[in-house]
Design a protein that fits this description.
The complex is a heterodimer of chains A (about 110) and B (about 110).
Chain A lengths: L8 E5 L4 E6 L7 E8 L6 E6 L4 E2 L4 E4 L5 E6 L8 E9 L13 E6 L1
Parallel strand pairs in A: 1-9
Antiparallel strand pairs in A: 2-7, 3-4, 3-8, 5-6, 6-7, 8-9
Chain B lengths: L3 E4 L2 E4 L5 E7 L5 E7 L5 E9 L2 E4 L6 E3 L9 E3 L8 E8 L6 E3 L3 E5 L1
Parallel strand pairs in B: 2-11
Antiparallel strand pairs in B: 1-3, 3-8, 4-5, 4-9, 5-6, 7-8, 9-10, 9-11
Classes of the chains: A mainly beta (about 110), B mainly beta (about 110).
């Protein structure tokens, strides 16, 4: 699975959009981009994933660049409860037995 | 639907004691994982299983053992507890190679 690079920390004002970037320049054609988050002391929570088209669900939107070398997770109206560590993970369709590997992620602080 | 359930939530062990961390899932997932997370650090994979009767080592398996006799259960055994095993332990499950992983709420273990 391709490696990812994320900023270690970001701040966002409550009610504003939080845009979390992720670089995955070595991504290959059959690899998905996954996002998870971990709120303090809790188990990680799945947010969204995509291959090449932009994706949206009730939690967030995922924008993947046309060359697929980077992506952005967007929380449209951040709340204090969105304060968490956000992990970007690249994983192949045929990863099969390969387990999820978590990097250091981005610590998002939503400020009132 | 309970998802992934871990017991106990908290435990204090003395050096040299043994214990089993329990993990069970009711989603009929084939893949199950054990991670540990030290304070302020990311998740590290201890062991994983791709189905009943099949287990494999992750990044930090030393000092731990696992078994997978049923699809539902994936217990993690500590034989001789050491202070370095003080951590939060998370169990996770996944249906197949792709898709989202579901995490338990963690077991906070302190070895004194």
């Amino acid at each position: 699975d391709a490696k990812t690079t994320q900023p270690p920390s970001m701040d966002c004002a409550e009610g504003r959009a939080a845009n979390l970037p992720c670089n995955h320049s070595t991504i290959s054609g059959n690899e998905y981009v996954y996002w998870y988050r971990q709120i303090h002391s809790q188990g990680p929570q799945y947010i969204i994933h995509g291959l090449k088209n932009n994706e949206t669900n009730e939690m967030a939107s995922l924008i993947i660049t046309e060359d697929r070398k980077s992506s952005t997770l967007i929380l449209p109206h951040a709340t204090l409860r969105d304060t968490a560590v956000y992990y970007c993970i690249v994983r192949g369709i045929n990863s099969g037995n390969t387990p999820l590997v978590f990097g250091k992620g981005t610590r998002l602080s939503v400020i009132a | 639907n309970a998802g992934v359930t871990q017991t106990p939530k908290f435990r204090i062990l003395k050096i040299g004691q043994s214990m089993t961390l329990q993990c069970t899932q009711d989603m009929n997932h084939n893949y199950m994982y054990w991670y540990r997370q030290d304070p302020g650090m990311g998740l590290k994979l201890i062991y994983y299983s791709v189905g009943a009767g099949i287990t494999d080592k992750g990044e930090v398996p030393n000092g731990y053992n696992v078994s997978r006799s049923t699809t539902e259960d994936f217990p993690l055994r500590l034989e001789l507890a050491a202070p370095s095993q003080t951590s939060v332990y998370f169990c996770a499950s996944k249906r197949g190679g792709g898709g989202e992983a579901f995490f338990g709420q963690g077991t906070r273990l302190t070895v004194v």
